[in-house]
Amino acid sequence: MNTPGVRVPDAETHKLVDRIAESKSASDWRETEMGELIELFDRKRVPLSSRERRMRQGPFPYYGASGIIDHIDDYIFDGEYLLVAEDGENLNSRKTPIAFFAAGKFWVNNHAHVLRAIKGRAHDYFIKAWFDQADISGYITGAAQPKLSQANLKRMKLRVPPLPTQRRIAAILSAYDDLIENNTKRIAILEAMAQAIYREWFVHFRFPGHEQVTMVDSELGPIPEGWEVRQLGDVIELAYGKGLRKSDRAPGPYPVYGSSGVIDSHAESLVEGPGIVVGRKGNVGSVFWSDDDFYPIDTVFYVRTNACLHYVYYNLQYQNFISTDTAVPGLSRNQAYLLPILLPDTNLTWRFQNVVKPVFKQVRTLRSRNANLRRTRDLLLPRLISGEVDVSDLPIDTGGLTDD
Predict the structure, then answer these.
(1) Which domains does the chain have, with CATH numbers?
(2) What stretches of 199-298 show up as alpha helix (H) in DSSP?
(3) What pTM did the predictor assign?
């Protein structure tokens, strides 16, 4: 949700925290039930089977309990709504937000409640922020399949301030979300730029000076003269990660990698960065880059190589990591080692690394900035939503922030 209001530059983050910390508690909050604040649109939801969706592919997002799961050829909602997970393991684990905005034209199945704040009573963003920090375990039923029924959703108890205060709280939190979103978009653009350079040089062979290079035949088709086709096992080693139970992890500065990427942090590292991680079980063949020292768990491999690391990172994203060994599900090292890898002129790969390294540096800076913004937002969130602090005297322009 891109909400107009206060904009919090990174340099102003600590000033805002200090100012809020000095504020006095609000006294005009009241306790109510969620059903008094929201209007539900669940009756309009229509679930479609995976087969039906395959037959109806199109441009409109199809939402489930945790976000977009497909795109189809029609929509049933048009506007901005708040979706809240109705069922699924995520209600307990909270790996992803259980409340999120959907905007524009879209479709929703029967696994997410669809709601809006009632005009004049509540603000959509305040409701979402409340879900972000609330303990709703007492309203969830079902052991095998957790469920948040519509009746339990409506009877959730919460304290809410007057609407102008809700708008001010929404302005503070949305400022952080907007900055995080903008940084995330910049990261995506930078990563796409680096990918485009790799494709241009090493897939389409339009590298600097390519006009003077003769093309020769190879098992991969025509390649520039002087380049080699080798087996992947000649160039890299896929080393096993090490098991690390969640209960044994001590929060620290080092990212813990699973096959879905960073899943946690730990006080100790296993591999010196920068490095490459490849999914072994779960998301087989997924490829991740780590600038920092890191800890790969036993669902991934990490890469050892003397070749240009940045080139290897992008090449692995084009590899066809498919295991045909049914006895050992997951990525087979032996099969992976037989895959072909194109080895360009060494000077060119190092030249490529010099081009993309500044891009990687910018991405790292933006990710670090986002991590700091999220930590600050998470610090502020429960204090703002609980009414522990009063924002009425903070210099915030809510601008167009309304409850419409």
Answers:
(1) 30-160 (3.90.220.20), 190-356 (3.90.220.20)
(2) 232-235
(3) 0.79
